[in-house]
Amino acid sequence: MTLNSKSIGIAVGIIVFAGLMLIPIDGLSGDGQLFLALTMMTVAFWAFQVAHAGFVSGLYLALLVILRVAEPSVVFSPWIGSTMYFIIGAYLIAAAVKKSGLGERIAMHVISLYITSFGSIIISIFMLHVFLSLLIPNSWARSFIIMSVMKQIIDNANLSKKDAVTIGFTVFAASVPTSMIFMTGESAVNLVILQYAGVSISWLEWLLYMGPPGIAATLLTLAVILVMFKPEREVTIDKGIVQKRLADMGKLSSTEVRVIIWLAAAILIWMTDSLHGIDIGWATLALTMVMGMPFIGNIVSAKEWNEVPIHILIFFTAAIAIGRVGEVTGKNDFLADLMFPSYAPQNIFVMAALIALIAKIIHMLLGSVIAVLSVVIPAVMIFTAPLNINPLIPMFIVYVVVFGHYLFPFHNISILVGIGEENGMYSDREIRRISFPLFIMVFIVILAVQLPWWRLIGLY
Description:
The chain has helices at about 5-20, 30-50, 55-65, 70-75, 85-100, 100-115, 120-135, 140-155, 160-175, 175-180, 190-195, 205-230, 240-250, 255-270, 275, 280-290, 310-330, 330-340, 350-365, 370-385, 390-405, 415, 430-455. By secondary structure, it is mainly alpha-helical. Helices cover about 70% and strands about 0% of the residues. The model has no long low-confidence stretch (mean pLDDT about 90). The chain is built from 23 helices and no strands. The chain has a domain at about 85-305.
């Protein structure tokens, strides 16, 4: 963003705040009106990127407490529960996989076995994301590990600039649908939406409810990319370079072996949480702390704490606070009445389409996935309450349509982090090109996969 656009963003935010404070709003308390004004100002600052997201988010949290909109225990409630600590653990696990070289080794093996053409490169990226989403609970970390390997392919294959950009974009675009399959596929979103909806499910229950829809979204996204991004020329892959890299890496190091052991333990803990009853957030935190201990750990060191981005944690805290404080101030009830009709359609397909359309409109206006989910999910819970349906149904509908589709980079941070030559090599152009097909895709997933699958397994 330019300095001029930042100035415009600040002006828009202040005008929005002043307008919402000056205009009488029936049905909203004084605290609720102040909260709504602060929230919309912050959303404007996020959308226009007037400053680093950490500064904007920190200011928002501070103002909520200073102006006594809510108690600190409510504003900073994510730090009382386990979600933030799971996210911290996820970053440390990603750092361990990257540091040990295990992620690169896995990627190199996949490339040596399956890559023979441009199409197989694209398919292998999706395969790697699905597999690594079991091991690394953070989509960005997976993307950068895969991208580091793909850059070696790009440098050594007969690729045009356009085809190289397609590969880079695919690395980050594939991280979105593949994150839907497992609860731990994207720690920064998947566990948070359960808090917004006020529900609790096990790792295996998530896989049951979202596994098939997530796989469908993954396959449809793969098909869209293969159809819309045709290679300019044939790809020549020198497998000898890949084999040499694997040979240079040698046998599994002792560190890689320890990482495999602890990752296996983590996956086992996640998959059996319904049996042992231990919250996976606390279990993951404990496991990653042990990974830094001598003798049995020695996988992560003090410097790996630098891989945990405090500004992202502050941003998540602010985004989650929107839903939590909104509940206390009555904002959630107000927005439910404002955004949705007075009654919910009885036909579940009509209801799903309506919820998805309203959520998508709000997403296009507000931007950030976490912020939009924090606003929409509590409101949609209130909207659908009279129907007495399982709250997982509206929650997952909103999740798919908001997380699975984007028009601009700021609509999904998993896409935003890959922008630029030094990252994923792509620009806004590739994102806009795929946006409309993805819009159609999320509605196909919701209406043709999610609802029939949930009917089949008896969720409704």
